[in-house]
Amino acid sequence: MRKYNIAVVGASGMVGNMMRTVLEERKLPIDNIYFMASSRSAGKTITFMGQDYIIEELTENSFDKHIDIALFSAGGETSKIFSPIAAAKGCIVIDNSSAWRMDPEVPLVVPEVNPEDVEWNKGIIANPNCSTIQAVVALKPLYDAYGIKRIIYTTFQAVSGAGMKGYKDLENGIKGIAPEKFPYPIAENVLPHIDVFSEDGYTKEEIKMVNETRKIMHDDNLRITATTVRVPVFNSHSESINVELGKPFEISDVVKILTDAPGIIVEDDVANNIYPMPINASGKDETFVGRIRPDRSVENGLNLWVVADNIRKGAATNAVQIAEVLIARGTIK
Amino acid sequence: MRKYNIAVVGASGMVGNMMRTVLEERKLPIDNIYFMASSRSAGKTITFMGQDYIIEELTENSFDKHIDIALFSAGGETSKIFSPIAAAKGCIVIDNSSAWRMDPEVPLVVPEVNPEDVEWNKGIIANPNCSTIQAVVALKPLYDAYGIKRIIYTTFQAVSGAGMKGYKDLENGIKGIAPEKFPYPIAENVLPHIDVFSEDGYTKEEIKMVNETRKIMHDDNLRITATTVRVPVFNSHSESINVELGKPFEISDVVKILTDAPGIIVEDDVANNIYPMPINASGKDETFVGRIRPDRSVENGLNLWVVADNIRKGAATNAVQIAEVLIARGTIK
User: Fold this and answer.
1) Which class does domain A4-127+315-328 fall in?
2) pLDDT in tens, A218-236
């Protein structure tokens, strides 16, 4: 069996660390693996499959050695500089930042939804925003079965989505220490504010959910609105999703379609208090869907509650799954 | 000036205590005041306007003395028994439980929205559910100006809404102690589950928001759906409200209408990170509205973010305001 040379760029961050874990768990056919980061983290030792590795400094020459796939989680600015360099050397970059997501030359991929889009990559594939990934995993099977006319997203997002500094703000906030990452305390509070505000009053996070959902679903006319909110939860995003389907449905059929769909675990037995929650989703790679019920306030309306580990499925796992798709489809030269 | 005899029933609970505070703050024209509770709390001493009072045990004879207004926050079962007894003795009960809210003989009142409904009381006036109160305060001025076709509520509710035991569950949960009130830990988690589930998959809290909004707005055909969620916040509920207005609007007009409306403080300057948050709303009697922005995914769509102190405006303050309306309108015999 062919084995591949893989790099993890941004190896010392929260998502980079999880990429390493997920690569171990999913047993990718790896020949050589390289861990890269900025000069700040370079030189540190990390462990992969029981072996020690030293984090290399990311430079223009980092991709001179043959690398098949580079999983980037190093932020947008670093990705803008180094992803094209890596791609020019024949590497396929799977980038977790928002730098390339809306570039028409770059596929935006969730393996359960649009794996075939990896085929037209030109060296860079974008990993979607965490809150978008779990949403489209839940919505795609319904889109295929019924069509979707309108989506209203309301999110309950964990602090890990803001990286280690966000995580620290909640840890410190519980002890009464002022925040550094967030503009206000997140402990015992909720912030209707994720990423920066744009001029139309929406945050970039909200705009990402709208645009990325359309791109992944290949439907530029999908009507979507979003309100994204930070809650004092360490890990796993929850989302209340209100959908207007394209035609009538039986709720039992919706449950069956979701149960049979890839990457979804339906947790929906409210008589026994079974519904998705962050504390149960954390550490898992699947997207959990529950509270599945018709919304009688509109024709073909449906309410869903969708929870997933934003560091795993929302970032690291999805990126590794894209690598698996590339390998399985023989897309790598 | 005429003064009134007032009773607080359920005086030792979280809302009962706040009723006492709000009665002090708002300086109601009180002649005699009585504090009542179950035998468990009877005999305890509490302070009102610098004077000590002993909590009386609530019995069938408690209303034999002349009481003009009784503020009940003693739970549904107690209210079902004692509200009719009090009303029969000529007292007007303002009840904070859900026992009477949907009774067609009982007005359901938010003073900013439908104060005139106090007039047709037959001895009992219901105080709405906390999550409904702040929503209708924000929506009524828009309903009057534009009409409303559809509402989608998504709530972020504080643990104080579940009383002292809910509060304790979050305090303990932060220390790693298992919950007693909630079915799962609320610390570092969110629960898409408030009140009990009904057969159609909605919780009673969600059904309350639908039915109570319609009753308060006097519009049985208003199309509404709700998802109500408990978050690890001690106090003040937040709500993401998506509305389909009845006709086109300018966002500047919406802001002006809300700014001029009674009981509302608009906090909406996202360029300076100004938006409503639980930590700012707690301890205040107003309803805070922000993130006011058009929703382009539907004709005449609007998104709002609404935060209020659920123990004050969502319970105690609203009840005391109803008493003020009764006094101001001369409704008391």
Assistant:
1) alpha beta
2) 999 999 999 999 999 999 9
